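This part of the workshop introduces the protein records we will be handling. An example says more than a description, so a record of this kind follows:
>
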Amino acid sequence: MTALFALATSLLWGLADFGGGLLTRRIPALTVVVASQCIAVVVLGAIVLATGGWTEWGPQLWFAVGAGLVGPVAMLAFYKALALGPMGVVSPLGSLGVAVPVGVGLFLGERPGLGQVAGIAVAVAGIVLAGGPELRGAPVQRQAVLLTLLAAFGFGAVMALIAEASTTLTGLFLALFVQRVTNVAAGGAALWVSVRRGGSALPEGAGMEIVRKSLPALAFVGLADVAANGTYSVAAQTGPVTIAAVLASLYPVVTALAARGILKERLRGVQAAGAGLALVGTVLLATG
């Protein structure tokens, strides 16, 4: 059950990242984040009302608030790092955030078996290689590395926090709603500051028209991200966090395969090797 939900998380996060990446080619990244999360807030709000999730209100929701505050910071740091580049270094480094929830699991007393330890090592190596790291050439700015490590820590912290935000299904809906409201507030504030400093909230020329045409894609990105947080929370509660976190972090493989299948991008040799290692690591974890 843990492996199933964690792999579902990777699929959803990978597709959400792919969709978000396509959208940011036409719409400013902050606008994509805020708009997609606004749609998620509306849908989650309706679910909370329909299921009576508000009755699960309690102090554990501070974990959801924390996840909602950390998430936009991590995303903005990641986008800034990608802008500084090179992407072939930034992308795989961003996957190292898996160390945070794995570390939390070990701190709380989880002790994976020898086969699972091997699976974790192989899968993490595959995750990093699937990003297509540039092993030589292309100088890397120190600021890009620092921003990427900040983003990685933030992504990992979100995984650790959201796993602690609820213990029931209806409570999970409420926790995800609170997280998304916090995301919108934090992202909206960042967007306002960006505009005040001369940035643009809308694409030049097309304006709101392209945003309206992109609403289905924005909805998919926002809801896929929400669903991924939900499936990860279930995975972390039904089994060892050390395993759930690694399997849930296979999303770079999904993103790379989506780019290959839809955009016809060719996988580099290192990416293909990474995807293969990630698959081997998944098998070791699932059978360990």
In short: The chain has a mean pLDDT of 80. The CA atoms of residues 86 and 140 lie 7 Å apart. The radius of gyration is 18 Å. The chain is about 75% helix and 0% strand.
